Amino acid sequence: MKKLTFLTLFIATTIFCQTNTEVHIFDIIKTEKGYDLKNGKNISNNAAYDNQPYFYDDNHVIFASTRDKETDIVIYNLEHNTKRFISDTKNGSEYSPQRIPKSNDISAVRLDKDGLQRFYQYNFKTQKNKELIPDVKIAYPNWFDKKTIIAVAIINGSLELLICDLKKKTTISVAKNVGRSVHRIPNTNLMSFISKENKESWLLKSLNPVTKEIKTIASLKLQEDVTWLPNGLLLISRGNTIYKFDPKKDMSPSLFFSSIDDNLNNISRIAVNSDGTKLMLVAEASPEYLAQEQLDGYNKRDIDAFLKPYAKEVQVYRFPNTLEYEGIENMRNRYESYFENTPDLHCELIKRIVHKDQVIDHELVTANGKTRKALAIYTMKNGKIASVTFL
Fold first, then answer.
1. pTM above 0.85, yes or no
2. What is the rounded CA–CA span in Å between residue 202 and residue 208?
3. Collapsed DSSP state (helix, strand, coil) of residue 134
4. Distance between CA atoms of 377 and 354, rounded to whole angstroms?
């Protein structure tokens, strides 16, 4: 394998950022005023990375889910509310699973532990796999037909849009500086993608894979996670909200869905089934959930449960801004023996204030026969506790 440049390695490892995200599914209800999302359910329910949801058929969905520090493909049965892993790659992880057109097999991006990133086909029943596109670092693919893939790939340290012909074994670059969302536009032979050539306002564009013609559809400002309803309505996620936009008649996006659920933070990927009756979305765990998760681990004196919601580069401060240490391993070294040697260790929550990405806990801490009051300020980023300040 060729030696990776620092920039290429950085992009490859950050494309599938291991944030604490969950996959939720909703029923799409058409109303007199527009649309509503009902009967929301967390179908991943996993205290780690869950992402890239895809409707396999009317009764099954697939997505990437992390277990034992590796990310594999999960299939979820919507009728029985059950899930199982359908890949178990020992030397790597799978991302962006999709059903291959006119096949029961699944495609996925595989990122091996040595940094090799390739696009594979997986047999649904046997789990056997084969490489589909050699020598190309595919990141975000989508199928145009059974022999053509429109994919975002890492080329010379940046993201480019490729047309990959499996039959002819060719790859053609058609756009540079693109985003991760690639989708078929309903009732057309076009694919949509995100152009980031304009740094101030990203553009949604269409691609004709046959003629290679590219046209601009709309400006998305700085949003890149989109999908399409079967009727041609574009959905755009931003923060805790999803907007809708009809390219044929709308001048600007309007509200489709706004979440008041604390467990739906920073909505990113969205997917809709073939008849437009169900929607899946990816959202970060709520700040309150993360703060409570580490508190529960603390009171159980379970070092792994305690550390799970913290970012690898977590920073720990003494109020107001004195950095005491940083890094998850430093935190482990400080708390592991403390948990083992302090049998009366306990933290009682007196009051909690949640404001945007911060949680402020007023606590009553007991250790070694003494009880004292304390204040902890947790700051969240990308579904993890990025910093904590003690007072």
1. no
2. 19
3. coil
4. 10
